[in-house]
Amino acid sequence: MRCLDVKLVISDSVSDFFDKISSLLFLKHEGFFKDYSIKMGIKLDNEYFVLLDDLKRIKELDSEFLNFYFGSFCDYKDVRNANIFCLATTFFKIPQIYTKDFFEIIDYLSAVTEEEIRKNILESLIYLQGDLKTETSTQQYLNDRESLFDLLNNLNIKPEYKWIIFKVMKSPKTYVDQFCNKLMLVNGYLNEAIYNLIKFRDEWINQLKNINMDFPKKIISTLKGKEYLSCNYINIYPTLLPYTATITKSEDNIYVGLGYKVDEIFENTLEKAEINHIIDFLKLLSDKSKFKILILLSHKKMYANEIAEQLNLTNATISHHMRILTLQGLVESTRNQNKTYYYLNSSKFHSLLNGLLGKFKSALILEKEE
To answer: Which residues form the HTH arsR-type domain (predicted)?
Structure first.
């Protein structure tokens, strides 16, 4: 049920840590972010190129460390909204560190249990897979190694990172400790490198303190769907990685990392994102098998074997279709007696159909008047 009295909370406690992580992502994926900026029709401030030059002079930031912890799980063509998934960002979840500063986060990561690290990594992998029922699924993979093997094999991520993830899952504490030790080693250098950008963060948080509630709501509803706004609190933290938005949800809280200057282009960006969602929706409907699956699920919940029998398709084919449909948010799932039942996400359908109608609203009104 959607809460009407949503409260807005703005804090920059986590920003210093997150900006350092983002800076290392920027260093590792310099070409991607430059191309992304050009694609979006935006220009990076000169201070960001100074940041890159300063980061490149930190000899402790060797390619082995950057490749292992900050290499993208997915090919660049599969990255959405400039949010790159890498090993470093799977160790923690924003709700766990939102109120902490850099050193408190290092202490937290150093003390966290291996099971909690595994759970965080798995939740990121399950999100990539498109399964939104993370609580049940996470426990399943924690308890069943064969299920974990299947998850890794089926994920659309680079093979080398499947192997890295497998190694880390066996001994997560070792790799988190190495990660924290490296961050502490280069922390002073990172402070010097991002010094010229701090003024942007200060300006940005002052702007955020005066924003209208509609601003983050618009971003959240466009990128995640209006149904995602069922919450009591929207927690915002500023980041220096420009023109990006990172959204996480935990119980009745939504956490939104808003990149510096995202307000300058968010209308254009969100319009493009909304159109892309609608186009993806229409592409899915144009696929005969997926369309038939959605028709079946509009009547009742069904498990994979039932759908396969109805449509005369293999279980492997159905699994492929379901991963795509759940990733797009059109289908959700629930487990009952060791079976995974799929059902239509009606609120997502309504949102997309209303968005589609909205694009032709003026034409429909004109036709009605005539």
So the answer is: 270-364
How is residue 14 annotated by DSSP? T
Residues 6 or more apart in contact with residue 160 via CB below 8 angstroms: 71
Instruction: Residue 14: name the closest of 207, 237, 187, 186 by CA.
Output: 237
Whole-model pTM: value is 0.69
> Phi and psi (nearest 5°) for 260?
-55, 130
The stretch 202-206 carries a mean pLDDT of: 85
Identify the DSSP state of 91: S
pLDDT tens by residue, 162-180: 999 989 999 999 999 999 9
Topology annotation, domain 287-369: Arc Repressor Mutant, subunit A (1.10.10)
Give the residue extent of every domain in the chain.
11-211, 287-369
**Nearest-angstrom CA–CA distance, 17 and 99:** 11
Instruction: Give the angle subtended at the CA of 133 by the CAs of 129 and 139, to the nearest 5°.
Output: 90
